[in-house]
Design brief:
- This protein has 486 residues and is of the alpha/beta class.
- The protein is globular, with a radius of gyration of 23 Å.
- The relative contact order is 0.12.
- The chain folds into two domains: 120 residues, no CATH class; 338 residues, Rossmann fold (3-Layer(aba) Sandwich).
- The strands form three sheets. The chain has a five-stranded parallel sheet with strand order 4-7-3-8-9, with helices on one face. The protein has a two-stranded antiparallel ribbon with strand order 1-2. The chain has a two-stranded antiparallel ribbon with strand order 5-6.
Amino acid sequence: MAVQNRIVKIQKRNRALVRFDTSRIFKAIARAADSIGGFQQDFLPGVNDKIFAAHKSEAEIAGFLGDMAIVCLNANPQHYIANFPPTIETIQDEVLHALRSYGFQKTADAYECYRWGRHWLREGAITQAQFSGNGFPRERMEQILAWNRQHGVDTVAGVNEKVRSGKIKDIVGPALAVYEASLDEAANKVVARLNAGDKLRMIWVSGPSSSGKTTTTVKLTQRLAKHGLRFLMLNLDDYFWSAVEHPTDWLNDRNFEAPEALDIQLLNEHLRALLEGKTVDKPLYSFKEGRRNGTKPVKLEPGQILLLDCLHGFYPPITEGIDNSMQFRLYIEAMNVLYEGDGSTKKLTQFTDARLVRRMLRDVKHRNHSPIATILHWHYVRYGELFSIIPLMGLADHVVNGGTPFDLAALKPFFLGEGHYLPKPADFNPYAGFLDARIRYDRVKELLESVEGLTQAQVAGTELIPGDAVIREFVGGSTIQIPHNE
């Protein structure tokens, strides 16, 4: 399809002006789609089915989406002026806008993760070997899928059969054993580094929202405490900027999900000072007031290790000036890999969606946020993850999988049935323009409906799911004692 393009030049990152080669846009979109298995992964009846009907090949669909990005770029007449051409970043923003506007959400996520991974590569924050590509580590996913296949739970249908037959307990124990063994390995790595003479003073537990950081942090410290290690836990929520410095959108929602929500400069100064043995006046943040309302003197004693549970723990500006040899980085993702249905479609369920379900439950139970508010807020969550969490996973000294094959079965009774939390389709009528939220809602609803759930009684008791399982952070009944910070 021919579209009008009056833009002659673009500005590279080094500010040099070069001719606008539109074919690079088409190729980048095609590569992003190919990395997730093709555009068909984003096929949505009633949303973008007409695009698939009109364009028969992958190249044609990439061409159409690239043309739409070019149309968006041409909407700004300033870009026609030789000295004010669009920048590379502006072009990439419009590509993402085009992809998401037509419901190509998975392709957009792959494109965005790759984009920011390349950014951190150029910045020198990661090496080529640490580059995470589209954010879906194939080798690790294949290992998880192989385990699930061996135990008959590599598909939703397989999990359902285990639940119906009463054999799901045969999966719960072994799956949790894999998680516990991974934590053992992490603890052994920490101890090995200390025994080798590393001056390790900081341990980061990082990963995307609702991946299981809290349980993992406690369990890791329990293991390390047996080796005589002592910790100072620092609550990084106290470094949030005041709420008045976080502008709201028209839903009165604020973006606390990006690293910029934290006072990075002050946090970095305090971390370096603590490692030097100094006392710092750490801020105290009141979420009720939406501001800092005091300070508390904190000091890292000799022999103590700073323990930090943080979404953006790998974000380079936070640890600027701190030697890597002083840090151990653990990355956690709820990365359970399942095929939809009986696996015949060859489409994988999205472990991002499993985390969304976890967070909906946590928010409604503990933060007085409605599930629909969580879904509408999720685009902020994903932006932060795709910018400064997932692209940096290659920095990890150890990776833990916080997801299990029985998660969805344990979550379902809270979202379907009597007193359920899942919004109704009509609840989205006031938010017709929020296509991203509606797509995620439809996908999560379809996924939960396809799952054979456990009963509320099965989830409430500990006979089936132990009280220290990661999923307990969300369904309740956790026996993990969360230590006070500082």
